[in-house]
Amino acid sequence: MKDLPLAEVYRLIEPGPVVLLTTRSRQGRANVMAMSWHMMVEIAPPTIACVVSSNDFSFFPLRQTKECVIALPAVELAERVVKVGNCPGRDTDKFATAWLTPLRAEQVSAPLVAECFANLECRVVDTRLVDRYNLFVLEVLKAWIDPAQPKPKTIHHIGNGAFVVDGEVIHFESLIP
Amino acid sequence: MKDLPLAEVYRLIEPGPVVLLTTRSRQGRANVMAMSWHMMVEIAPPTIACVVSSNDFSFFPLRQTKECVIALPAVELAERVVKVGNCPGRDTDKFATAWLTPLRAEQVSAPLVAECFANLECRVVDTRLVDRYNLFVLEVLKAWIDPAQPKPKTIHHIGNGAFVVDGEVIHFESLIP
């Protein structure tokens, strides 16, 4: 995987794809969950808000270690993403169950996901809305892109296991980044 | 437009489409902006977080009145959405400029957008992250759907006026709502 400039991160998150979120507990156990509730907050430094339910096993390592990775799967991984979403993290090695490969990250203890086309190493920077809404604010410290997946199509969850896949791209003159 | 059950709202927001956000100032002036930085926070009551920059003219009426409408445009409105994004709200009637029709809402002073396939009347319920991140938490009070637009395709912004249009829908067995 190659460096992705941090100024490019918003292009990955802004369109709202399903992502994977990985954590590693203080005891060293890695976990991965599927996530659709996330948005950009600032372009520079790239800042992302996300909601991780306190019913999710990932909630506790995220709150405790304040580190995670957001990994972006292309449509070819859709079945594995659903598998990640369907199995509980408490008793399962979800990486093994879903045939995903954890890789060592550079700045956080949470692992990258080898099969994903982009990986964002993140640190929690604001927890004021965690108690009320399970809403974490993350800063992206380091971003990776897989040059072997140059034109990935992402998936967008529309509920109950149905996903819209990216279709055509249209262009307009725009003053907006 | 017909009632949309509030329990269905997350299906519209979770996939991350470009939306329009409308406000009405205390002086009675309606405004509309394009927005991609939003996410679901809770399914019931439907709660949405969004970022509205303090550089946007909509920021002040939203903070002051604590009311807005989130309207969902289908791909056929893409050019008008870009027009909304490109022109400043301070000196322009953006509804007129972009050929959009404001309609009276039921529970908030901000207008619905007649051409959009769904409209969500919202009230601001949390402002703790407004000063730091321009992040508002909204509760959806009332939702409308246009039965004349049964299968709308939405658009997702990937930066600089480029949008991905919804493609095919794929289905998996899922335990997740």
Would you kindly provide a written description of the structure presented here, covering whatever features stand out?
The structure is a homodimer. With about 180 residues, chain A is α+β, with helices and mostly antiparallel strands. Helices cover about 15% and strands about 40% of the residues of chain A. Chain A has five helices and twelve strands. Chain A has helices at about 10-15, 60-65, 80-85, 95, 130-135, and strands at about 1-5, 20-25, 30-35, 40, 45-50, 65-70, 100-105, 110-115, 120-125, 135-145, 155-160, 160-170. In chain A, the strands form three sheets. In chain A, strands 1, 2, 3, 4, 5, 6, 9 and 10 form an eight-stranded antiparallel sheet that branches. A two-stranded antiparallel ribbon of chain A has the order 7-8. Chain A has a two-stranded antiparallel sheet with strand order 11-12. In chain A, a hairpin with a 2-residue loop joins strand 11 (about 155-160) and strand 12 (about 160-170). Chains A and B meet through strand 4, strand 5, helix 3, strand 11 and strand 12 of A and strand 4, strand 5, helix 3, strand 11 and strand 12 of B. Strand 12 of chain A pairs antiparallel with strand 12 of chain B.
Question: What's the topology here?
Answer:
Two copies of one chain form a homodimer.
Chain A: E1 2-3, H1 9-13, E2 19-24, E3 30-35, E4 38-42, E5 47-51, H2 59-65, E6 67-72, H3 78-86, H4 94-97, E7 102-103, E8 112-113, E9 118-126, H5 130-133, E10 135-145, E11 155-159, E12 162-171
Antiparallel strand pairs in A: 1-10, 2-3, 2-6, 4-5, 5-10, 6-9, 7-8, 9-10, 11-12
